[in-house]
Every structure is written in C-alpha cells, then in structure tokens.
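Structure in, sequence out. Go:
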C-alpha cells in the first residue's frame, strides 16, 4: 500500500501526455530515489515556471517575459511571420533552427465539429500585425489536416487584400500529420520548400 501523497503524485503525473499509471509510478520511484539531485531541482523549476510564465502579447508564445525572447531578438527577420496552431508547433520549428523570422500562435484551428470559429482564434491579431508592420511574407505552418488546411485557406483569404506573399509548408509534411510529432529533418525540408497558397 502506497502513501496517499505518493499516490497523488502518481495520479498527477499519469495525466501527462505519454505517461500512463505504470510509467508515472516508475517516474515517481526514480524521483524519490534521487530526491536531492532530481526531485528538489524539479520542484524549484516547476515553481519558477508557475510563478513566471506569461503569454507574449505580440505572438502568443509562452515565456517568462512579454514580449517573448523570440519577438525581442534583433537578429530575426521582422518581415516574415510564421503562423502556427500551438506553442508546441513553434517550439518544434525552433528546434530546426531553419526559420529566423517571427511567429504567430493561433491557439488552434477552425473546426465546425468542435464549434471553433475565427473569433475563437488569434486571427484578428495576425491580420493587425500584417497591416501594422512591414511584413512581406506570411508562412502558414499549419498541420496537414482538414482543420489545418481550412484554417490556412481562411487566413489566406483574410490576407488577400494585403500586399504580402502567403506561403505554406510543402514537401515533407505528411497529410494528416501534426507538426509537433515530426522530426527536425522533415520540418527543415518543409520550411525550405515553402510554396504560394
């Protein structure tokens, strides 16, 4: 019989993606055995994130600063905005180190089945950013799902009266694939092979 506090920790960890009850138990045992080297630093890191994390009001990324570290990086190309569904997709693209422009996180995709319309996403802010800045290209890095492609077409339509080039990821992104699950090589190829929408 496990202690109630340990069982609570197992239950919380088992709710994380990729961890079921058995994996969570193994993680908890590992953390307990290495309390000083792993558990204490993990507790401090979780507290730091809890206390300091904010959403960037410019792009929607999460960071400990607003604007985020990507938005304030002077080495990035401000004329190119890459539109992604979620922060996980932004992080996936950043791992490739191929894209050196700015980002815009939508917070999801349009979905009639789930009742998600344009007003539920960060699309108006994107349109405003494109019109207010010297943006020359918008890269639609959305998943190759029906909802992702519907969202891409909607955004392209909304930006059709702007003098920007609207492109989308190409080769390497499988139909039905989600960016967060793709490897860096596939994402790099897709980013380099952008095409007009």
């Amino acid at each position: 019989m496990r202690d109630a506090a340990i069982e609570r920790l197992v239950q919380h960890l088992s709710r994380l993606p990729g961890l079921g009850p058995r994996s969570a138990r193994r993680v908890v045992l590992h953390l307990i055995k290495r309390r000083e080297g792993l558990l204490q630093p993990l507790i401090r890191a979780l507290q730091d994130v809890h206390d300091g994390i904010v959403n960037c009001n410019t792009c929607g990324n999460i960071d400990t600063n607003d604007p985020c570290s990507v938005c304030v990086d002077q080495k990035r190309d401000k004329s190119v905005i890459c539109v992604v569904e979620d922060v996980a997709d932004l992080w996936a693209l950043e791992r490739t180190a191929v894209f050196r422009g700015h980002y815009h996180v939508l917070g999801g995709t349009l979905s009639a089945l789930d009742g998600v319309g344009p007003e539920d996403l960060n699309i108006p802010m994107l349109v405003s950013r494109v019109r207010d800045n010297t943006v020359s290209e918008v890269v639609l890095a959305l998943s190759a799902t029906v909802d992702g492609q519907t969202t891409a077409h909607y955004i392209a339509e909304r930006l059709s009266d702007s003098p920007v080039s609207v492109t989308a990821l190409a080769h390497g992104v499988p139909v039905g694939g989600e960016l967060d699950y793709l490897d860096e090589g596939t994402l790099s190829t897709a980013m380099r092979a952008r095409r007009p929408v």
